[in-house]
Amino acid sequence: MSVNTRTLLILIVVGFGMLGLGMSSAKIYNTFCKITGYGGTTQQAEENLSEVIDRKVTVKFDSNVADNMPWVFKPQQKEMEVQLGQSGLAYYTVKNESDHPIIGVANFNVTPIKAGPFFVKTDCFCFTEQRVEPGEELPLPVLFFVDAQMDDDKRMDEVKEITLSYTFFESDSNAQIATETSGSNAEKTLN
Amino acid sequence: MVAISGNDTGSYGDDKPSFFARWFYSTNHKDIGTLYLIFGIISGLIGGFLSFMMRMELGEPGIQFFTNEHQYLVFVSMHGLIMIFFMVMPALIGGFGNWFVPIMIGAPDMAFPRMNNLSFWLLPTALICLLVSFVLPGSASGDGFGGGWVMYPPLSTSGSPGPAFDFIIIGLLAAGFSSIFGAINFITTILNMRAPGMTMHKMPLFAWSVLVTAFLLLLALPVLAAALFMLFTDRIDGGTGFFDPARGGDPQMFQHLFWFFGHPEVYIMILPAFGIISHIVSTFSKKPIFGYLGMAYAMVAIGVVGFVVWAHHMYTIGMDVNLKAYFLAATLVIAVPTGVKIFSWLATMWGGSIRYTIPMQWALAFIFLFVIGGVTGVVLANAGVDTALHDTYYVVAHFHYVLSMGAVFGIFAGFYYWFGKMFGIMYNKFLAAAHFWLFFIGVNVIFFPQHFLGMNGMPRRYVDYPADFELWNHVSTMGAMITLLGVVFFFLMLIEAFIVRRKVGDNYWGEGATTLEWTLSSPPPYHQFNTLPRIDEDPTEHDADKMH
């Protein structure tokens, strides 16, 4: 193999390597967001193992619905005060105001975004898709805690409020509803 | 800079193929370089026409020339894409790179001449795809794609359902692969095909600049290709949802991918110009370049740091303050190697015997104007300031000072410097001077007032504006007319030179021009260096000699 051919092959591998990195950026980006809490990405845990300490934060609740989605989506409480490490249970309500069943899926984050790594959900309606029948009103629970480790992070010293925000979008699964003959359970696990 | 032994008379093998075979099947690096330059001039005319129409429209408030906002935005988007991918890159890298990198390092041709041919011919194909998109349905408001050269989703996905943007994706992929192939070719040529004695640390700075640029291309363009592929599949009904939040995607991810490519891209456009300016400043000061190694490694440093500053283009997306602090600091760091280059050029001229020839005028104007663009860049690097100035005309003024005065002045400087070498004839000095002065005054009158507009809060990418902004917009449009006149003189210069055909000698710049291309005839023989030149002297010793 000539020197030029060898250089050529190495450079082609480098080029394809960058292309591969680019194509897998969705996976890399997701993993990165989950690990670092980038963009206010919250954490997820099976159960609350955090110790409970005296410091308190106020958790505020925010709700949004994508354009043209005929749902009314509201938090049942505006805010809630929790101790660090203490589990909190909050409810949202969603109502389908259209005349057909709609499956929705919720995106979420917290503000300030640096609180992402410490805000942990143990159970959430956002983990799965939600199917709401015409005119139906559903309570949607979220079980969360703010990890007590937040107290050790100097950057978090001034944080007294964390806003948890959800936005509902129509799910791709809606296409299946049209072809369904009976109202089977369309709940599908995300993640 | 180097002493060269060996004798290249150029009398051998100078048979050229017939017209069609020579220009369409071309594998000769000089012919391909010429093709790239012609292509760059044509694209520059198209892109320049688009921007001239924009300036005419913005001469006064209200909508005069365009049918609606969308059509204006199509012009804005296409102006950006065409000038970047089809004018600056082909001219600097494909044109001068192909012409002079092999000669400067003492190689007979590029490493892969047929791949070189492929690189070139992908470009006209790509440009046709982009031009076709003008007349294809874009969004509900009209034909063509109006989402800016940055192509952010959702405007480029659900916002532009028509086939216009698909053609742009295909065109950009073709242009991207053309550049990747070109980059592979340059790296292989420079690493493996240097003449005996031409070590990396004796290599002329233009070859260094193209080497760094080629690495940036190789690392950055595949990421753009990936982002474009993902946009393409996102646009298909029932396709992927990489950038669609409703399907678990994130539109911000596109911005990260785009700017991971986009920031190195701005150095891809300016580094070859840096290389050209170094040669010109050295030639017309009759001194070797000051701090040769510092100049070479400053470009390497700019290239490396250029990959870790991309998010300064996206301070307003809702970024954590610590992340902003990082990108701010990293961005400011780039001012250091850039400063090394500026001061080395000044130090090269210091005490030199300076000749204000046409290429030297372009080079001096480059240094002056690039510093202005660089300083506004330092202003914009500050996340707090950028929050106020983001997407205003201040940003437009900034990047046109570094591109339409930086990169473009570098192109013209190189063009006048090597014009006699490439075509064997000399330009008319009066026409060339008229071109320079009209262009210099014109672009400054266009873009300097845009700083004021931006500071006063005029946002970019709007067809209309409140009457308060009229004065400086009017001045800016006057500048566009002066620039147009300058362009007319450029073509008059070309026509006159090719009609009169004043022959030039091998080294028409004399003593200061020391690189290998000046040892060959003008124009160089069809195939050069059948006997490879030998390079013996150490340029750093040479530096030391001069100082005593």
Kindly summarize this structure in a few lines.
The complex is a heterodimer of chains A (191) and B (548). With 191 residues, chain A is of the alpha+beta class. Chain A has helices spanning 3-23, 25-36, 174-179, and strands at residues 43-44, 56-65, 71-75, 79-83, 87-96, 102-111, 119-124, 130-132, 137-146, 161-170.
Which terms summarize this structure?
heterodimer; A: 191 residues; alpha+beta; 5-stranded mixed β-sheet; flat; disordered C terminus; B: mainly alpha; two-stranded antiparallel sheet; 16 helices; 6 strands
Per DSSP, the total helix count of chain A is 3
Beta-strand fraction estimate of chain B: under 5%
Average of per-residue pLDDT values of chain B: 93
Instruction: Return Rg of chain A in Å.
Output: 22 Å
Topology order of chain B in helix (H) and strand (E) letters: EHHHHEEHHHHHHHHHEHHEEH
Biggest sheet of chain A: strands side by side, in what order? 1-7-9-5-3
What is the oligomeric state here? heterodimer
Sheet with most strands of chain B: 2 strands, antiparallel
Description:
The complex is a heterodimer of chains A (191) and B (548). With 191 residues, chain A is α+β, with helices and mostly antiparallel strands. Chain A has helices at residues 3-23, 25-36, 174-179, and strands at 43-44, 56-65, 71-75, 79-83, 87-96, 102-111, 119-124, 130-132, 137-146, 161-170. In chain A, 20% of the residues lie in helices and 37% in strands. In chain A, strands 1-7-9-5-3 form a five-stranded mixed beta sheet, with no helix packed on it. The longest helix of chain A is centred in the N-terminal third of the chain and has 21 residues, at 3-23. With 548 residues, chain B is an all-alpha fold. Chain B is 65% helix and 2% strand. Chain B contains 16 helices and six strands. In chain B, the strands form three sheets. A two-stranded antiparallel ribbon of chain B has the order 1-6. In chain B, strand 2 (137-139) and strand 3 (142-143) form a beta hairpin. The relative contact order of chain B is 0.12. Classes of the chains: A alpha+beta (191), B mainly alpha (548). At the A-B interface, helix 1, helix 2 and strand 10 of A face helix 5, helix 6 and helix 7 of B.
